[in-house]
Amino acid sequence: MERPYDEQTLVHDVIIYGHPTLRRRADDVSVFDDDLRQLVREMFATMEDYDGIGLAAPQIDKSIRLLVIGVPGEQEENKEDEKFYLAVLNPVITSSSGSWDFEEGCLSIPDIRETVTRPESITMEYDTPMGEHRKLEATGILARVLQHEIDHLNGVLFIDHLSPIRRGLLNGRLKRLERDSQE
Ligand code: CO
User: Fold this and answer.
1) What are the domain boundaries of the chain?
2) pLDDT at res. 82
3) Which residues contact 51 (CB under 8 A, 6 or more apart)?
4) Cα of 70 to ligand 1 centre, how many Å?
5) Cα(117)–Cα(115) distance, rounded to whole angstroms?
6) Does residue 57 register a pLDDT over 60?
C-alpha cells in the first residue's frame, strides 16, 4: 500500500506516560473535513517517524477518537516495505473471540514491553476520514494493534492489563517516566 503522506508532512511529538491526556476519554469525531484529513496524514507521518505500527490521536495530545495503523502486509512476503495502512475514526468493537498472549510496547511508555492477553479476533465498526461507516474483521497482529490503539481512546494503557504483581514490578520505571514527562 502506498504511503499515505509525503516528505513535507508535519511530524508531531508523542507524549509520554504521566501526561494527563493519555488518561482522558477522547471525544467522538463528527466533522470530516480537510483539516481532519490533514491531521490523519500527520498521524501517519508521526507513526512512521517513531517506527510505530499504530498511533492514537491522544498520543499527540489530541483528545479525539482517531487512530492510525501501519502493519506489515501478510500476503506479500517478498516486499518488506509493503504495509497495510488504515485510518480509523470512532471505532467500536462489536464482537471478539479467542484469547492470545502477545508482547506489547507503546510509544508513550518507552523501553517497557510486556505480554498482554487479549482476544485474538475482533469485529469493529468505524468511520473513514471521508465520514463513511465501515465494518472490519481482524485477527492476529491487526486485531492486536487495533485493540491497543482503541484502548488509548478510552484512556487505557497496555500496562493496565497486567496482573497486579507484574504491574508492581514496573512501578519504579513508571514513576521515573512520570517524573521525566512533568519536567
Ligand atoms: Co500505545
Assistant:
1) 20-181
2) 81
3) none
4) 13
5) 7
6) yes
Rg of the chain over Cα atoms, rounded to whole angstroms, equals: 16
Residue 181's pLDDT band, with cuts at 50, 70 and 90, is confident
Q: What's domain 20-181's superfamily in CATH?
A: Peptide deformylase (3.90.45.10)
Distance between CA atoms of residues 93 and 147, nearest Å: 8
On whether the CB atoms of residues 46 and 55 are closer than 8 A, the answer is yes
CA 21 – ligand 1 centroid, Å:
13
Give residue 79 CA to ligand 1 midpoint distance, Å: 26
Q: Please list the active-site residues.
A: 149
Q: How far is the CA of 150 from the centre of ligand 1 (A)?
A: 9
Compute the distance between CA of residue 5 and CA of residue 29 in angstroms, rounded to an integer.
21
Cα gap 31→116, rounded to integer Å: 34
Q: Answer yes or no: is pLDDT of 73 > 90.
A: no
pLDDT by residue (tens digit) across 33-47?
999 999 999 999 999
d(CA 172, CA 179): 11
pLDDT tens digits, 143-171: 999 999 999 999 999 999 999 999 999 99
